[in-house]
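Can you make up a protein sequence with its backbone structure tokens?

===
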Amino acid sequence: MTAQYDAIIVGGGHNGLVAAADLARAGARTIVLEARNSTGGAAITETPWPEAPNYQVTRLSYVMSLMPSTIGQLAKRGLSGLV
């Protein structure tokens, strides 16, 4: 039997997880597909240096902080899934 879903979320980052939770709460049969072995996207805390396992960083959060503020304006134009 093939599983059927009302919504398929591609990417288990923090935005995808929130979208999936909202859809599921509304009654949609929802699945989240993530290529990495963990979910959370830019909000995840990782240990990027094997030789220093006590140092944990949110390495993608820093990269996201460098995003031009004009990208955030896209949400006002109907592209809310980007931010």
Strands lie at 7-10, 30-33. The chain has one domain: 7-77.
